[in-house]
Amino acid sequence: MMKRVTLVGGMGSGKTTLSQVLAGRWGWDAVDLDRRIEEKAPEHFNLDGPRAMSIPTLFEAYGEPAFRRLERTCLDEVLGREDVVIATGGGTPAQPGGAMDDILKAGAAVWLRGDTDALLDRALATSNRPLLADLTRGEAREIYAALETARRPHYARATVSVDVTEGAPRIIAERIEDALASIGHGPWTR
């Protein structure tokens, strides 16, 4: 009986949107790991007040290693929940310490894969991408491609993969359901 599905993939692959669509279809909760990190940061870094901190602010103020430690804490927390679709950050599965192993132990993992340029265009359309901040498109593509190459072996360990290059979120959600059903997984198999 599957209790959680974790979406993995590069920036711009639609993890957040698809987690919400799938959770709505299944009557589950959607958890965006980046949002959870933003909410947890004030407590983690002993800051005054309950205000959330954006991912770019966290990167700038504390650096990537501190961000990754908080990310791991939040990942462990959400992997303990049931009936949840988790949208990870793009780098989450590639972090040392067995993050992808733990994702796979907790339930099904879905790699949202797609054309590099299409995903990059989506990623650049938002302002919360600290690894691509203040870069030309060419520089951003070079960074994105390098990240994709480094992370691909981790993503490829997912239970299933689905191409997200084209299609409305509802259509891609159906592809994910079909992929999970083809291997006997899905919230409808209780």
**Beta-strand segment tally:** 5
Helical residues, percent: 40-55%
Beta-strand percent range: 5-15%
The CATH topology is: Rossmann fold
Task: Describe what this molecule looks like in 3D.
This protein is of the alpha/beta class and 190 residues long. It has a single domain, classed as 3-Layer(aba) Sandwich (Rossmann fold), CATH 3.40.50. The chain has seven helices and five strands, in the order βαβααβαβααβα. The protein has a five-stranded parallel sheet, with helices on both faces. Helix 3 crosses helix 4. It starts with a strand and ends in an 8-residue tail after the last helix.
Reconstruct the topology from this structure.
Elements: E1 4-8, H1 15-26, E2 29-32, H2 33-44, H3 55-79, E3 84-87, H4 99-106, E4 108-113, H5 116-124, H6 137-155, E5 160-163, H7 169-182
Parallel strand pairs: 1-3, 1-4, 2-3, 4-5
